[in-house]
Each structure stands twice: as structure tokens, then as C-alpha cells.
Write a structure and sequence with these properties.
This protein has a single domain, classed as Rossmann fold. It has a five-stranded parallel beta sheet, sandwiched between helices. It is globular and about 40 Å long. The chain contains six helices and five strands. The relative contact order is 0.26. The protein is 46% helix and 17% strand. The chain is of the alpha/beta class.
């Protein structure tokens, strides 16, 4: 199952991804986790144009699709509708905890998702990880 944790930079995506991974592994589930910044470093790809953002989403989708784990958690901004479509998550978690991130170009490019499974509204990763776990049970 592919889980996308999306939101503006600084919204708590990575912290939530860590908490969710810990929750899933505590239930003896196997989990892969891909953080967009780490993947960008690995590929030395710092292109934040629309094309670069979509390429990153496609790359993350390819990495997720090669996983043999029970769950794949990916945290990245996914501010463009095309990024979300390219990634094609089973579960979308939107971290809507801040109005503006630290990068003006990302703020301007970010479009709120119309479809998501869980909308995170506060920076309380442990609580939200539990809520996401409940949502996953129903997927």
C-alpha cells in the first residue's frame, strides 16, 4: 500500500512519516519510507520547475512500486495536481498545518488537494499516526 504524506515544507510531513512507520512496524508490518529530500540528494536533482517536480513524483512512484514491503510511506510536498496524479497513492494524507512554507515558489505553486483520506490539522504526529492507522484499516 502506497501512502503519500503531502503538504508545504515545514508542515510536519517527515515527523508524521516517522511516527506512522513506527506505528506500522510495531504491528509487525514491513515498511519502506522515502523522503523526497533524501531522494533528491541521491539523484542530485534540485530542479524545482513544474517539470522537475513532476519528475520527482514519478521517481518516487517508481521507487515505491519496486518495494516488496507491506507499506510504502512517501513524504513530499506534492503541491501540483500532476504530482499527485503521477504518484497515484492508495492513501493520501494532507498536512494542512501551516498557511505558508519557507519557499515562496513552492507556496505559489501549491494547490490544495481535492481528494485525500486524512487531513492533518495540527502538529501532533503520534495522534495523527493513530488516526491514519484507523483510516488504513478501511482501505
Amino acid at each position: 500500500m502506497k501512502i503519500l504524506i503531502m503538504g508545504l515544507p515545514g508542515s510536519g510531513k517527515t515527523t508524521l512519516a516517522i511516527a506512522l512507520k513506527e506505528s506500522l512496524t510495531s504491528l509487525n508490518k514491513s515498511v519502506d519510507w522515502f523522503n523526497a529530500d533524501e531522494v533528491r540528494k541521491q539523484y542530485n536533482d534540485w530542479d524545482f520547475s513544474s517539470e522537475g517536480r513532476i519528475r520527482q513524483a514519478t521517481r518516487l512512484a517508481q521507487l515505491a512500486s519496486t518495494s516488496t514491503k507491506d507499506y510504502v510511506i512517501v513524504d513530499f510536498v506534492a503541491g501540483l495536481k500532476e504530482q499527485r496524479e503521477a504518484f497515484n497513492a492508495d492513501v493520501v494524507v494532507w498536512c494542512d498545518t501551516i498557511k505558508f512554507g519557507r519557499y515562496q515558489d513552492t507556496n505559489e505553486a501549491f494547490t490544495q488537494p481535492l481528494h485525500y483520506c486524512v487531513k492533518v490539522t495540527s502538529k501532533d504526529a503520534e495522534t495523527w499516526a493513530k488516526m491514519i492507522m484507523e483510516s488504513i484499516k478501511h482501505e
